[in-house]
Amino acid sequence: MKLTKNVVTIPDNVNKRTERWRLLSYLVVALFIASALLYAVYLVVDSERQQKLEIEKRRASEHLSAMRGQIEQRLQLNTLALRALRPEILWQDTPDRVRLQHIMDEFLGSNLDIMHVALAPDLIVKFVYPVEGNQSLIGFNYRLDSLQYAGILRAIAVKDVVLIGPLRLAQGPKALIARMPIFRDDRSLWGIASLVIDHTHLLEGVGFYQHPSYSFALRQAPSAMSPNPDVFAGIDDLFTTDSLITDVTFPYGRWELAIYPRDGQWVAMTADFWLHWAIGIGLTAVILSAFLMLIFTQHRLRGAISTIAYQARYDGLTDLPNRNYFSEQLEADIRHAIRHQQKFALLVLDLDHLREINDVLGHEVGDALLQRVAERIRTSIRENDFLARIGGDEFAIVLRDLNDPSEAEIRAKAIMNDLLHTLDIEHNHINMTASTGIAMFPHDGQEVQQLLKHAELAMYAAKSQGAMSVHFFDEQLRKSTERDINLYHQIIKGIEAEQFEVHYQPVIETETGLLTRCEALIRWIHPERGAISPAEFIPIAEKTGAIIGLGDFVLRQVLHDWKKMAEVGLDLSIALNRSAREFNDRQAASHWLNVIAAAEVPAERLMFEITESMLMRNKERQFANLRKLRDAGISLAIDDFGTGYSSLNYLRSYPIDVIKIDRSFLHNVPHQGQQKALVEVLIRIAHTLNMKVVAEGVEHAQQVEFLQEQKCHYQQGFFYGRAMPLQEFIRFAQKFNRDVLARQELD
Q: What whole-number percentage of the chain has pLDDT above 70?
């Protein structure tokens, strides 16, 4: 038994000793980790303190530079008064005292710091102003005062203003003294002009003593004779602390200016960062107890996998299925419907003007709105229907177990009507509208992507019809899409084949009656279809991006044609339309300006017209491009003003020069009172904002007279002329202006 016992007990003792050593080693490692972590916390806290110290000193340096600049500027202003006396002194052999007193009254009455002025011909004071309190200076001989005489000799040597002090004056107080030698035209010395400056008043004038955050101190610059000069303004011991110091220079002299926080320290000491220490200690405790967390690893891992799976299938904002999960579910619905020979409807609902709401009210309001919309739709559909968010402002709904398409339309309108009720979000009352496209299974498609694509095409068709519209997919939509794609390819080929032309419509200056401007309008002469209306191809170009190529063509053609006009004496400004799609490129303005510069056409002769809706999107990018164009001299105009959603805030914020009143507002003017009043208001708004006004759609003489009465700056319309090719426009413009000038001469 003993042997057995030994065999048993010895390993136990070894295990215990091993465990003790393991525990001790763990303790040592834990202590090492704790020490390392605490040291790391110290380094982080100290690094943050050093960063804050650097930031505070950089901020103080800015205030120090500003104070130095103000003091130097103030000294310069005072010494300028001294320089101004020289012509008056040398104007005649003996200075006119009355005239000098008048000049000095002006100096003393200004916002300067002058105490008095002394003139010393031949270095003997004979004129002092004001005399009161300074009578003892009359007759004072500078040669008899070694201290002042040394300063005078220095001024004579440098032949310029020399500023010294502050010195104790014979009258009692300390002040700065600026001395300027005055030489006659024959370079002989007339004497000395001295200006006594109240340095206390000067420093108070620049806020030297009143700064809320910092204290300042001034002293003479150290020299070999005086390595530690006294402080003559501010706190005495500021130069012995960790203050920032800079030089204040003035005529042939230098001071030192110091700055230090009023509370006596740049940043709190490291011990004050107790929160960081608490975090560090807590982190150490967490790491030391990390072994206890191992039992939760599997649980956490399972939770993380579940979260990742959820995020991959659901929208994080609305908790609705996302596009990927929706596609999976739609595929399952298709298989189920085929197996049971059922029908269902796919609705794609798009919210109207969500982008504008985000821009005006902020993305937080937009996100809250999307959450509320998701709740409204969820309560509007049946329990067995399926709802998902498939885009920024798009929702998809599968209405299951439907036999009649009319049921889908009824349900779609009911959902949109529920959205129409006012939503109160952060004190904003929002009436949300939407447009819905419907595709029916199996009639409109039997595959996921095909069905979804057809529903989206129907949704775009609904949006083109206006808010709260519902549109079913049909074969006409597919054909329309194919036509759009075909037209896009023809536009690209048309640009390459030079099928496009630029015509010019006259714009008349109301005040003079002369044709001073024109608008460039693109025309497409198709080899097979003939002239194609811009109303047909411009929207397609906008939607597909072909507008960028068209816009580049128009710009280059306008630059070429402007030079042709200039050659025949027509110095006109040309307006050309710019698409919002073109402004998506951050380098758009730089590209256009390079093209204009290469063509050697003055930028001031161009005006870019933009739409109101463009001001509502990508504000920072749009503003940067517009500001760059405006700074280069290009005028900017809002085309079709009054038809968009912009507000007066946008007119004030953006660099707009011209407002173009849409032709629809001029319809029935001046016969229709309401339309007439509306145009008057629009013109008055432009006048108030110092903007020019162009009225489009002028078609008869009564409108011309009305616009003249309202002081509308420019007029454009068929009354004056339609858009014409270049040569025809040149002949028209020359004849038009000749006729106007001839009538004016007869009048």
A: 88
Backbone angles phi, psi at 525, to 5 degrees: -105, 95
Instruction: Tell me the C-alpha distance between 695 and 612, whole Å.
Output: 16
Distance CA 79, CA 254 (A): 15
Crossing angle for the helix pair 588-599 and 547-567, to the nearest 10 degrees: 30
Residue 441 has pLDDT above 50, yes or no: yes
Confidence (pLDDT) at 3: 35
Coil vs helix vs strand at 272: helix
pLDDT at 154: 87
Residues 6+ apart with CB under 8 A from 741: 514
Tokens representing 440?
């029916």
Closest CA to 201 of 242, 225, 233: 233
Of the candidates 92, 91, 89, the residue with the CA atom closest to the CA atom of residue 104: 89
Rounded Cα distance between 137 and 128, Å, is: 7
Q: One-letter amino acid identity for 443?
A: H
- Residue 48 carries which side chain, given as an amino acid letter? E
- Which residue stretches of 319-362 are H helix? 323-340, 354-361
Spatial contact of 416 and 381, defined as CB atoms under 8 Å apart? no
Q: What is the pLDDT of residues 254-291, one digit of tens each?
A: 889 999 998 888 876 655 566 776 777 777 777 767 75
pLDDT at 6: 35
The Cα diameter of the chain in Å comes to 144
Token representation of residue 48: 């943050």
Whether pLDDT at 571 is above 90: yes
Q: How far apart are CA 39 and CA 249, in angstroms?
A: 46
- A 10 A CB-CB count for 551 gives 20
- Check: CB of residue 386 under 8 Å from CB of residue 400: yes
CA dihedral 198, 203, 206, 208 (to 10 degrees): -170
Contact 740, 514 (CB under 8 A): yes
Residue type, 553: F
Surface-to-core class of residue 198, CB atoms within 10 Å of its CB (0-12 exposed, 13-18 middle, 19+ buried): buried
14 confidence band (pLDDT: 50, 70, 90):
very low
Structure confidence at residue 648 (pLDDT): 61
CA distance linking residue 510 with residue 687, whole number of Å:
15
Token pair belonging to 668: 């029935």
If pLDDT is split at 50, 70 and 90, which confidence band does 95 have?
A: low
CA atoms within 13 A on the CB side of 138: 9
Chain centroid, CA 697 distance in Å: 35
- Residue 616 is given by DSSP the state G
Q: Which residues pair with 387 in a beta bridge?
A: 397
SS3 95: coil
Confidence of residue 628 (pLDDT cuts 50, 70, 90): very high
Please report the DSSP string for 292-325 in residue order.
HHGGGHHHHHHHHHHHHHHHHHB-TTT--B-HHH
Overall average pLDDT of the 1-26 stretch: 48
Question: What whole-number distance in Å separates Cα of residue 248 and Cα of residue 226?
Answer: 17
What are the pLDDT digits (tens) for 650-691? Answer: 676 778 899 998 888 888 888 888 889 989 998 998 898 889
Query: What number of CA atoms fall less than 13 Å from residue 529's CA on the CB side?
Result: 13
What SS3 state is found at 193? strand
648's tokens: 């007066």
Q: Which amino acid belongs to residue 123?
A: L
Q: Compute φ and ψ for 92, nearest 5 degrees.
A: -145, 165
Residue 698 DSSP one-character state: -
- 473 contacts 437 by C-beta, under 8 angstroms: yes
HSE-up (13 A, CA, CB side) for residue 401:
6
- Nearest in space to 319 (alpha carbons), one of 245, 370, 244, 382: 370
Q: Bridge partners of 697?
A: none
C-alpha distance across the termini of the chain, in Å: 143
